């Protein structure tokens, strides 16, 4: 048993899981699985997707930037979405996938 002054680091997986849980607590429940799936399938750190979703739209799916025309949670430009997107930029599953 360690004394009070000894720091015992968490195993790397446990630290990652703790950080991901803290990050995901900021994401509305209905989008959490989508963010986790998108991070894993696109090999993008979860924190990048979560911070981006927050900064771009505050996780609001119906938002459109009146100046640029960017749409959805990820704020895709219509021309970018037309070339790379699938479905609607306002549709849950597709929003968080490049």
Describe this structure in words.
The structure is a single chain. This protein has 98 residues and is mostly helical. Helix content is 51%, strand content 0%. The radius of gyration is 17 Å and the shape is globular.
Rg, please?
A: 17 Å
Indicate the structural class.
Answer: mainly alpha
Helix tally? 5
Q: Can you count the beta strands?
A: 0
Average pLDDT taken over every residue: 78
Enumerate the spans where pLDDT stays under 50 for 5 or more consecutive residues.
Answer: 94-98
- Helix residue percentage: 40-55%
Please state roughly what percent of the residues sit in beta strands, choosing from under 5%, 5-15%, 15-25%, 25-35%, 35-45% or over 45%.
under 5%
Structure characteristics:
98 residues, mainly alpha, globular, disordered C terminus
In short:
The protein has 98 residues and is an all-alpha fold.
List the helices and strands and how they pair.
Layout: H1 12-24, H2 29-42, H3 46-57, H4 78-84, H5 92-95
């Amino acid at each position: 048993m360690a004394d009070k002054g000894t720091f015992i680091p968490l195993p790397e997986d446990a630290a990652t899981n703790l950080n991901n849980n803290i990050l995901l607590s900021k994401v509305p429940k209905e989008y959490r699985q989508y963010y986790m799936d998108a991070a894993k399938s696109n090999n993008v750190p979860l924190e990048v997707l979560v911070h981006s979703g927050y900064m771009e739209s505050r996780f609001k799916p119906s938002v459109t930037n009146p100046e640029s025309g960017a749409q959805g949670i990820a704020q895709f430009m219509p021309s970018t979405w037309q070339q790379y997107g699938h479905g609607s930029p306002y549709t849950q599953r597709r929003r968080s996938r490049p």
